[in-house]
Design brief:
Blueprint lengths: L6 H16 L13 E5 L21 E6 L6 E18 L11 E6 L5 E6 L4 E4 L4 E10 L6 E12 L10 E5 L7 H21 L10 E7 L6 E4 L2 E5 H6 L5 H12 L8 H16 L18 H15 L3 H10 L7 H6 L3 H13 L1
Parallel strand pairs: 9-10, 10-12
Antiparallel strand pairs: 1-3, 2-8, 3-6, 3-7, 3-8, 4-5, 4-7, 11-12
Helix pairs in contact: 2-4, 4-5, 5-6
Amino acid sequence: MPRCSSPLLLAVLLFWGLAATSRAEPAAPARPSVPAVVQTTLTSAPRQIRQFAFDGDADSYFASKDNAGADDHFTLIFDQPVAVKGVTVTTGKPKGGDGLDAGNLEISGDGKKFESFVAFKEGVARAKPEGRKVQAIRIKPGKDLEHPLVIREFAIESDPPVAVFKYPIEIVVDVSDAPDMKEWAEKTARVCERQYPMICEELRSDGFKPRNTITMRLRNDYQGVAAAGGGRITGSVEFFQAHPDDIGAMVHETVHCIQEYRTGNNPGWLVEGIADYIRFFKYEPGKLRPLNPDRARYDGSYRVTAAFLAFVTEKYDNELVRKVNKTMREGEYKEEIWKTLTKKSIKELDDEWRASFKK
């Protein structure tokens, strides 16, 4: 190309070059991450839960309670197949020990049929499927080990990306009172684990770190439906045998485990209302039965308060529940919070909400 000797021409060319750049097509939005779940034959050691193996934190790790055998496996299953470019799995404790030297990394295109892809060497397996469609990655010991299986981290490069467990959780089931309820309880626990990130996001606050383990126990002598406190959920055997589809009740109790209000000055109607708001407007929207407009009040608790919260949230502040929850978690809830967030008192909001029934 010949040199441009004219400053004016150079300026014109530069202008049109910048204009063309500004008219360039915007970058395509990032594809949403694909969720994953863990399936394993191994029981977790105390405080070393399954999801620590894929949480993006090299200092956390999964460890089995007992030594792993050749028939055991630890499998990461994606909600849908993804094009995997590379996988690195690191085993062993962060400070050394219990690395897997005899074992294989297996992959599956459908989450059912697996093939061995690469062997572990010095505790690490590296695979390059080069864009192959994969729905599951499995670790299989090559022999009976003389130590627990310890998995520090999966690192997966794929399109779309697979979402790490941002809020690692494991719900441990206790069905000693009703062994025949084990299948139902395990299924319910996995549902609550799946909803855990959503609940944590809805109720997040600065400096708060949700717990990593919850115990879910079914009891014959429990007379209510379910209750929660201190990271423990108790459910009625009789109720859930009669209402096996009411998994939302356990999602409600999982919310209580995340609320973690440490003071007793929070109004009970609001505590339960927030839990039912998460249940009926985030977990299972559309399942809330119609309310009686003549009896509905903001402090009616449970479903009634949940509907009130949904109305105020939609009309005034999409993050209202999270902000109110923050004051409750910090022991600073006062009724004035409603006026701060909406410019209206809670009585005015209640009148406005109940008036909406007539419309």
